[in-house]
Design goal:
alpha/beta; Rossmann fold; seven-stranded mixed sheet; six-stranded mixed sheet; about 20% strand; globular
Length: about 375
């Protein structure tokens, strides 16, 4: 049986101890699968782990045998997200991958991601479990303010798709977008957004605000400077995700942002939740009531030293490395982001969730770090 089935369909999304054997099996299976079916990835693994040249079957068996206990996961070569923005590393054929999407491409380069049917099913299962656990689903209809892009056939970004999907957590009455698609491009819908927000507040139905935290902050500051105060109806929520990206210089912490939201919109901090994810990592992290990203049973987090890439201990800042065995489409088993983060023990949070949590410190560039991305680049150039 595919070990991902009992892992992704477990009842409790944070039951790491109860699912550890399935996770480890799934990791070994996924590692072997990509080595066997992806020649480029097999060559990356061979070079990074120092194996002599051999057949992929023998390499897959030997490499997977190294992953015995959870600490061994750090041996799996982490692929930086920057690499996926430059090269395709697909394991499966395009016709086997019904869902394709791209990263937001903040600096002009986009990762082209694709997922097979099984990966989509497992991804839906994990998202459903997490959102249900955190109380994000409701049968009561809601109006939506979406601080992002209006969906359009030309827009294939992951964030646009996930924001739209999030607008079904409660039955949608109306959606108002900050960026509307008009006459072949996107335009800022500032007046329409303010008008709709005021109308939604008077409707009596809950309002759900979805979008980038930077956009939410700018909306709040604009309303605050104008002296506008609103009271979102009972049951309203704010769901933030996508990071600050090019607005990193304007970033405020979630405590300050929540305080401003309560002042301007009358919404309590516990009704504001953040999501963390990456186009190159098909996993989902939802903040707890204390605004911390706990690690669910479907993934693991490693913090690596910026220079040596060696795993660091709790409390030490380093590069965020995300682990998950979900996808057969692309080797996303170990992905290194461009975020500096710190890992904390779960009991330090106090929200009741026992698993470790990570804190994002800042974003960095990885161009000067010696990683397996460079090995992969050499491989691609040599072909």
């Amino acid at each position: 049986m595919d070990s991902r089935i009992p892992l992704y369909f477990t009842k409790h999304p944070y039951d790491i101890s109860g699912t550890e054997k399935y996770f480890m099996r799934a990791i070994r299976e996924n590692f072997s699968y990509h080595i066997l079916h992806n020649p480029d990835y097999a060559e990356i693994v061979r070079r990074e782990l120092g194996f002599k040249r051999r057949g992929r079957g023998e390499l897959a068996e030997e490499a997977a045998s190294l992953i015995r206990v959870e600490e061994d996961i750090s041996l799996i070569p982490p692929i930086p997200t920057a690499f996926f923005k430059r090269k395709r590393l697909w394991t499966m054929k395009p016709w086997q991958l019904p869902v394709k999407a791209t990263s937001s491409g903040t600096e002009g380069k986009r990762s082209e991601m694709a997922y097979d049917c099984q990966s989509i099913i497992f991804g839906g299962a994990l998202a459903g479990k997490l959102c249900s656990f955190h109380g994000l689903f409701s049968l009561r209809p809601a109006n939506y303010i979406i601080l992002g892009y209006e969906p359009h056939r030309t827009n294939k970004t992951v964030i646009t798709k996930t924001q739209f999907i999030s607008s079904f957590f409660a039955p949608p009455i109306r959606r108002s977008y900050a960026l509307k698609y008009e006459e072949g491009g996107y335009t800022l819908n500032k007046k329409g957004l303010f008008r709709d927000l005021m109308s939604f507040c008077r409707s009596g139905f809950p309002v759900r605000i979805i979008g980038f935290p930077a956009y939410f902050f700018f909306l709040l500051k604009t309303l605050d400077r104008a002296g506008i105060r609103m009271k979102l109806p009972e049951g309203s929520m704010v769901l933030l995700g996508g990071g600050w990206k090019k607005f990193e210089g304007s970033k405020v912490d979630i405590i300050e942002l929540s305080g401003l939201a309560e002042k301007v919109l009358g919404i309590k901090p516990e009704s504001i939740r953040e999501f963390f994810g990456a186009a190159e990592h098909p996993g989902l992290y939802c903040s707890c009531k204390n605004h911390h990203f706990h690690v669910p049973c479907y993934s693991r987090v490693i913090i690596r030293d910026e220079t040596s890439l060696k795993p660091l201990d709790y409390g030490e800042p380093g590069i965020l490395n995300l682990i998950t065995p979900i996808a057969h489409s692309i080797p996303l088993i170990s992905v290194m982001t461009d975020d500096i983060a710190v890992l904390h023990r779960g009991e330090d949070c106090g929200c009741g969730i026992k698993t470790d949590y990570f804190e994002i410190i800042k974003r960095v560039g990885l161009s000067e770090i010696e990683t397996c991305s460079q090995t992969a680049d050499r491989l691609m150039r040599d072909k």
